[in-house]
């Protein structure tokens, strides 16, 4: 029977397993080199609706575990043929995952997605392509500045900060001590944003953006 | 329950609305360790190797990365921890 892999935790965390997982299957654990991987038996999916329901059930399990300990999630759906395949994987990567779990211990990831909205109508008066590009550049620069303000404002409640820039958006990731997520979010509430910039804050999530040490 | 303050939306990670649902799916499908990336979906009792599940359920950003990408093998080589 194929196994669906949920996440990796430290063995010494001695985490209590959720009673059942995706497809109501019993959650099992596999230990190797000081790490524990959680799995459950998995049947082939029947259609996209079931796949979506399974993905949501998978998230529920991760969130339940995240409340108890630090986890490194597998991407859904990670399916292995047997426990021995997972054991070999843990053995091969044990050092990097143990280090990552130590570094991320008791921390969660909060995300701030900053997005440029449509510019105010009165500002759409460009007379040339150059003027348009200059304005666009200035709006993007403002987005970067606002990301910096979010970072400064939350610095006392975050261990680390990373961000990725897209076309009209910036995704910011804060590594926040589990016990300080409420304070972190409270800091965000008082933020005054310009009319054409939007922020969407989500979390807590497993700290996947911080798995690799910063180069 | 989501709360909004001056263009700042603080969303819960419960998939209670469509946007939160997308957040959740984006995370479970795009974030985390990868061992291999294939999935078998059966329709009417026939097993089909469904190579593009993440393309259907994932974020637009990731879906765009897959456009034009060659089909993936059923088993991918083992990878290191992979962030989003």
List the helices and strands and how they pair.
The complex is a heterodimer of chains A (215) and B (84).
Chain A: E1 3-10, E2 27-32, E3 35-41, H1 47-66, E4 72-73, E5 79-80, H2 83-103, E6 107-116, H3 129-154, E7 160-165, E8 169-177, H4 181-189, E9 197-205
Chain B: E1 3-5, E2 8-10, H1 18-30, E3 40-43, E4 46-49, H2 53-57, H3 60-66
Antiparallel strand pairs in B: 1-2, 3-4
Number of domains of chain B: 2
Number of strands of chain B: 4
State the end-to-end CA separation of chain B.
25 Å
Helix content of chain A: 25-40%
Textual characterization of the structure:
The complex is a heterodimer of chains A (215) and B (84). Chain A contains four helices and nine strands; from the N terminus they run βββαββαβαββαβ. Chain A has helices at 47-66, 83-103, 129-154, 181-189, and strands at 3-10, 27-32, 35-41, 72-73, 79-80, 107-116, 160-165, 169-177, 197-205. In chain A, strands 1, 2, 3, 4 and 5 form a five-stranded antiparallel β-sheet that branches. Chain A has a four-stranded antiparallel β-sheet with strand order 7-8-6-9. With 84 residues, chain B is an alpha+beta fold. Chain B folds into two domains: 1-32, no CATH class; 34-79, no CATH class. Chain B has helices spanning 18-30, 53-57, 60-66; strands at residues 3-5, 8-10, 40-43, 46-49. Residues 48-84 of chain B have low confidence and may be disordered. Classes of the chains: A alpha+beta (215), B alpha+beta (84). The interface between A and B is large, with 58 and 44 residues. Strand 9 (197-205) of chain A pairs parallel with strand 2 (8-10) of chain B.
